[in-house]
Amino acid sequence: MPVTFSCKVIGDPKPKIYWFKDGKQISKRSEHYRISRDADGTCNLHTAAASLDDDGNYTIMAGNPEGRVSCTGRMMVQAVNQRGRSQRSTPGHVRRYKKTTIPDTEGEGRKALLAIIHMPFI
């Protein structure tokens, strides 16, 4: 089953983006995960076929010279029995949103990081 974590990151200067699974950085050259970033700041972490090994906590970190922000979501992967049903009931696809903002508190015209991150919990 395909799974995508998606969020929007905005910053000036443009933040660098890093994805982690259970605290370990996901390589941009990963064969299992596809990492992308659109012109509007939307960042995606996608896997075409989630497996039990994909169960875990996924974190995106955005950073530039003015600061860092991060957001974590959990992917829960469940085994399916022979009848095609999961072994425990699931609430379905649940989305919770976290908004993180770091304002320019100096007021001296410095370029500040502003990151708005939306990360679905699955």
Automatic annotation (TrEMBL):
Superkingdom of origin: Eukaryota
Keywords from the named record: Disulfide bond, Immunoglobulin domain
Domain Ig-like, chain residue ranges per copy: 1-70
PROSITE patterns: IG_LIKE
Entry's Gene Ontology molecular function annotations: protein kinase activity
InterPro entries registered for this protein in UniProt: Ig-like_dom, Ig-like_dom_sf, Ig-like_fold, Ig_I-set, Ig_sub2
Name of this protein: Ig-like domain-containing protein
Organism classification: Eukaryota, Metazoa, Chordata, Craniata, Vertebrata
